[in-house]
Amino acid sequence: MAGCSAAWRALGRVIRWWSRSLTGARWPRPLCAAAGTGAFSPAAITTTRRHLSSRNRPEGKVLETVGVFEVPKQNGKYETGQLFLHSVFGYRGVVLFPWQARLYDRDVASAAPEKAENPAGHGSKEVKGKTHTYYQVLIDARDCPHISQRSQTEAVTFLANHDDSRALYAIPGLDYVSHEDILPYTSTDQVPIQHELFERFLLYDQTKAPPFVARETLRAWQEKNHPWLELSDVHRETTENIRVTVIPFYMGMREAQNSHVYWWRYCIRLENLDSDVVQLRERHWRIFSLSGTLETVRGRGVVGREPVLSKEQPAFQYSSHVSLQASSGHMWGTFRFERPDGSHFDVRIPPFSLESNKDEKTPPSGLHW
């Protein structure tokens, strides 16, 4: 496992180099992995005839060809069935369908004049959204153990449809991926991604490109669960080279103790854009409800962790939940990070709205086909 982890860390360095070196690259390029480990070989990306050194290759494992890299799309979008390598977390996946989101980037808006600061420390500057493509994807189950410390693989959750108003369930290996995080590749394998839903959702058709087309079950599942899967708004802000991206999702409403409780899930990605090592120590949330309440939440770390963001592992992604006794609200706050010398600094969490669906239907109680 130690060797596998070393290969995984090395992959992250190569992926970041790969993303910066797209111009003038010679395509296609082979993509290989150590058989049975899900650990990609940086050396083998250049040529299948080169072997990993013993320090990077898990003992007793050999390299097997996974596929061939394609030229990433600068324009347009990827189709259903596109195989890819995640440029940040390094897992293999397949595109199910795209989402057209509105990206509110406060870094872009920072050049505009700001109004007076509010008590939460956020300027009240106007941030205009722009259209940005995200994808609903499946994660290869073989890679989940290698990314679980950096990105939750059961982050897409739903309200259970029964009397327990707080019960949630998750679909393992389901994720949302931004267009620029997709490194596309092709494979001759008819089942290149190991996930229980792969063959249920996709059909191999060698006459198509990519050669995996949507089954009727995928189209039906997307239509029936659209309100609870839909990605509409993305919020982003950078403080001292730490970029925070927030994506909120409305989950539905439940009745509890003669009142309505509205639920949201929010996914947060933290990225260190610098080479300095930092560690997340505390979170500070302000949660405003349309009912007029303002709640403050402080605590150590996030989801029980205090992740370290370094040059080798620059990103961490997690999901959490919030409930209000009102149909809408807002959230904002800060993350406190620590430097190696013991000093601290606060990173802003971009403010985002919590909005419910006006024409709400009952949230799903399982996978609807």
UniProtKB/TrEMBL annotation:
Cited SUPFAM superfamilies: ApaG-like, YccV-like
Main location: mitochondrion
Protein location: Mitochondrion matrix; Nucleus
CC terms in the record's Gene Ontology section: mitochondrial nucleoid; nucleus
Keywords attached to this entry: DNA damage, DNA repair, Mitochondrion, Nucleus, Phosphoprotein, Transit peptide
Pfam families: DUF525, YccV-like
GO BP terms in the entry: DNA repair; error-free translesion synthesis; mitochondrion organization; negative regulation of macroautophagy; positive regulation of mitotic cell cycle
MF terms (GO), sorted A to Z: DNA binding
Residue ranges annotated for the ApaG domain, each copy included: 236-361
Domain of life: Eukaryota
InterPro entries: ApaG_domain, ApaG_sf, Hemimethylated_DNA-bd_dom, Hemimethylated_DNA-bd_sf
Function, in words: Involved in DNA damage tolerance by regulating translesion synthesis (TLS) of templates carrying DNA damage lesions such as 8oxoG and abasic sites. May act by stimulating activity of DNA polymerases involved in TLS, such as PRIMPOL and polymerase delta (POLD1).
Subunit field text: Interacts with PCNA and POLD2. Interacts with SSBP1. Interacts with PRIMPOL; leading to enhance DNA polymerase activity of PRIMPOL. Interacts with POLH. Interacts with POLD1; leading to stimulate DNA polymerase activity of POLD1.
Entry protein name: Polymerase delta-interacting protein 2
